[in-house]
User: What shape does this take?
Amino acid sequence: MLPRFWRKIKYRYDLVGSYCENCQSFFYPPRNLCPHCRRRSKIKEVPFNGKGKVLSYTVVHDAPEEYKDEKPYVIALIELENGVKVLSQLVCDPKEVEIGMEVKKAFRKYGEDGASGIIYYGTKFVPASHF
Amino acid sequence: MHKVAIIGVGCSKFGEMWDSGFRDIVISAGVEALEDAGLEGKEIEAMFVGNMSGGRYLAQEHIAALIADYAGLAEFNIPSTRVEAADASGGLALRQAYMAVASGVHDIVIAAGAEKVTDVGNPMDIMISSIDKEWEGFVGATLPALYAIIAKLHMEKYGTKEEDLALVSVKNHKNGALNPKAQFRKEITIETALNSTYVAEPLKLFDCAPISDGAAVVVLASEEVARKYTDTPVYIEACSQASDYLAIQNRKDILTMNSVVVAAKQAYKQAKIETKDIDVAEVHDSFTIAEILAYEDLGFVKKGEGAKLIREGVTELHGDLPVNTSGGLKACGHAIGATGVRQAVEIVLQLRGDAGKRQVNAEKGLALNIGGTGATAIVTIFSR
Ligand SMILES: [Zn+2]
Assistant: This one.
């Protein structure tokens, strides 16, 4: 988990995605090759403004081992203003979330590695009304 | 291309099999299939094995040679190959075996699927590796959580209800009660399903298939060779496989599994049939919403109308289009890498008239095996 996490840290911390200059498409998570242009891809990194709305969501009750302490928690599929979809935790009361709700990105803790004590951070989303 | 027939099928019991090891389970299915085909063993020219995670479930890789060995075939030195696509691994094995015979490279080939999951602590944590670990798993998503997100949107957009999902579970348990190989052999009420605890809202315990031990084996042969062994061959008219974006966030529409749509379209075309010609189907109900999506993506109904089929009883055992007569993944059990082959076993039994108490009247059958949230799909069409 460790090297894999740190390698992508820039993209997790500040919601940096990819933009293909050849076809003007945005992507998240970042990718090296545009699925529309492939060899003609002209990919560059772009930060996303992190404003969007909830397309769909779930409240997780049966969580994987690393997330047991946080349950129940909300995972939402969020559509950003540029049309890109991002899967993220949504920091709010599970009763508060609804489809169409406006949300914004925030920098939050994503759990820790019990053995090494290392804490993971990343982008989560928060209801826009909380700002 | 050679026409391909299935001349023998076998299946272990599915479930939590604490008393049986991986090798025992595989051999019980294999022996049954060879007996069914009337084969001695030395006629087998090649073997393909679907297995998702021997390395993590058993700390044992090199599964294909192990299975050939314990099937008593070591001294024939046949090529044995493991294939993997999460819980579509069995479907892949079937397709590889199909292509090996259709191409004329081999005359008699085994497709096997096997998984032993109860030897480790938490099978769910291993199943999570079928989704995008870096970008879905990292945020705390699980396989049920992603299907729950799909279900939530399907409910919002098309008016599908939690009751509709529960009806899928009730139907599959009812069928499973008639299947001696099934993990759950008890009917349940809709209240039981609806009152079960949430796993990931709106999906509850009874919306989720178990993760099971089990193995299934089918013997494939070219049409000419098949005639020497059986009077009741079941033909594979098409076996198509397709892939899609691994993570659901990259899909244009999370309510459509493009892999299923594409594989189904190719399969119908190759088999020269239409959707309405299908008499019986086994679909990948790893979660109840997946069965509703399958109705739509296979073209049984238009997008958004899946719940209608279950509400109106069309897919019940004695409805117009019985689906998951075996009990499906929900009640028969979901032995990950075995499931795709186990589905083929059920369709063959149905088309031969050997399905016992759950027998339906069918000439053409379909099986849909899915990996994870649909990044892999295999659609197979069978006829008698
Ligand atoms: Zn492009």
In short: The two ends of chain A are 32 Å apart (CA to CA). The CA atoms of residues 9 and 78 of chain A lie 20 Å apart. The first helix of chain A runs from residue 2 to 7.
